[in-house]
Design brief:
Blueprint (H helix, E strand, L loop, with lengths): L3 H12 L5 H43 L2 E4 L8 H8 L5 E16 L2 E10 L14 E3 L11 E5 H7 L6 E7 L13 E12 L4 H4 L2 E5 H8 L6 E6 L5 H9 L7 E4 H4 L1 H39 L1 H9 L4 H32 L1 H7 L21 H27 L3 H5 L3
Parallel strand pairs: 3-8, 5-7
Antiparallel strand pairs: 1-9, 1-10, 2-3, 2-6, 2-9, 4-7, 5-8, 6-7
Helix pairs in contact: 1-11, 2-9, 2-11, 2-13, 9-11, 9-13, 11-13
């Protein structure tokens, strides 16, 4: 179809200045529309990818990549399990933990919290808590000393600092002298030995850390309820965790980060999909303009089409002439859009500084600069979608041109 003569004529029509001002204006608007739409899509999706990665890293800074549990029962031989897991493919660390819902109070403040028992020696293998300490050290959590490390927001709510004491209240089991089935709360004083900040409200405002042995005494249990695992590749962690669990037999359950944080990442996927569809409408509007431009060009060039037909060009050649026009506009617009989008996406932090913009105020948000992560798959998909829409927009006007009858077009010439 796209023979050299047809392409040559199509390029001549595209580059000629003989069109009316209105047709030329719409052509330029169409080209700019495609370019702007493609550029905005690349920038927005890159920023959303960056925010998703930032959120994932902050979530996993405390929750590791996967966990192994025994259905809620305490794991009394967790040291043996950790040894058996060593050498599993991709495994870089394993550490036990025990979570307890509790109320923390220091008159007059009180707040709910999750008290997590950890092993201070193994915890740095699976989380970034040791590097997130603002005051104190994780190693200060000595067994039997009833010391506690609080999230920064939780410490602020309780109005406590390092050296202060807080009362930890947890629901306990039945006690002697209590009514049958009654739950008697357990109260214990803990001394604040440190404050951490990981930059995620879900951790900083509700999480408190104690030594694993102190947590066991608080819960009246003889071991942790789960073992957290960390792998060298977070995206392969779900499969690697299940492969590692095979070493322990069928009695253990495995949960990975995609299950623990499913709601977060599903929301991000839905938002990314909807943003893509909405922003793709910009490209769609430009595509409609291309179709309108070609319809007007076909109407304006009916005589030229008739002459080409009488000189021997067939309907397929005429079809190629006008498809060349539309595709050229789409390709140039897409190329400009990809170049512009990549240029902005690669330099988002620099542009913030150069323009003195503070879109995410560091006094309000944990993320002070807009992250950007360019994924080649997204860029290729956007470019191909724009090219495909452009190609489709040329079909109808080109078919109308190909159906032009020379006798009808030249009757009144």
């Amino acid at each position: 179809m796209f023979q050299p003569v047809a392409v040559f004529v199509g390029l001549r029509y595209s580059l000629a200045r003989e069109h009316s001002f209105f047709v030329s204006f719409i052509s330029w608007v169409s080209l700019l529309g495609v370019a702007v739409g493609v550029a905005i899509l690349i920038v927005v999706l890159s920023v959303m990818n960056g925010l998703g990665t930032e959120l994932r890293d902050r979530l996993l800074s405390m929750s590791a990549h996967a966990s192994i549990n025994a259905g809620g029962a305490p794991i009394t031989d967790w040291q043996k399990i950790v040894q058996e897991l060593k050498g599993a493919p991709g495994l870089t660390g394993a550490a036990p933990f025990l979570d307890t819902d509790a109320m923390l109070s220091r008159q007059p403040a009180m707040g709910g919290a999750i008290v997590r028992g950890i092993d201070p020696d193994l915890e740095p293998q699976v989380s970034a808590i040791a590097g997130s300490m603002r005051e104190g050290k994780l190693s200060d959590l000595k067994p039997g000393e009833n010391r506690i490390v609080l999230g920064r927001m939780l410490a602020y709510q309780l109005e406590v600092g390092v050296g202060d004491t807080v009362t930890v209240m947890t629901p306990g089991g039945g006690r002697a002298g209590a009514a049958d089935g009654a739950i008697v709360p357990v109260l214990r004083e803990f001394k604040v030995s440190g404050i951490f900040e990981v930059g995620l409200q879900e951790h900083d405002s509700v999480l408190a850390l104690v030594n694993l042995q102190d947590a066991e005494a608080l819960r009246g249990m003889s071991g942790p309820t789960a073992i957290r695992l960390k792998f060298d590749d977070v995206l392969k962690a779900p499969a690697l965790a299940r492969q590692a669990a095979l070493r322990l037999g069928p009695a253990v359950n495995v949960r990975d980060w995609t299950q623990d944080n499913e709601a977060y990442f599903r929301a991000i996927r839905i938002e990314k999909t909807m943003m893509t569809l909405i922003l793709m409408l910009i490209v769609a509007v430009a595509v409609f303009n291309i179709a309108a431009t070609l319809v007007m060009v076909v109407s304006d060039k009916r005589t030229d089409i008739a002459i080409l037909r009488t000189l021997g060009m067939g309907p397929r050649g005429v079809l190629a002439v006008f498809m060349t026009q539309g595709i050229l506009i789409g390709w140039i617009g897409t190329a400009i859009g990809v170049a512009l989008g990549l240029g902005i996406a690669f330099n988002v932090p620099f542009l913030e500084q150069a323009l003195d913009l503070h879109i995410m105020d560091p006094d309000v948000y944990y993320i002070s600069t807009i992250p950007s992560e360019i994924r080649s798959g997204d860029v290729i998909a956007i470019a191909l979608s724009a090219l495909a829409l452009t190609f489709v927009s040329t079909v109808y006007p080109a078919l109308q041109a190909a159906r032009t009858q020379p006798a009808e077009a030249l009757r009144y010439e």
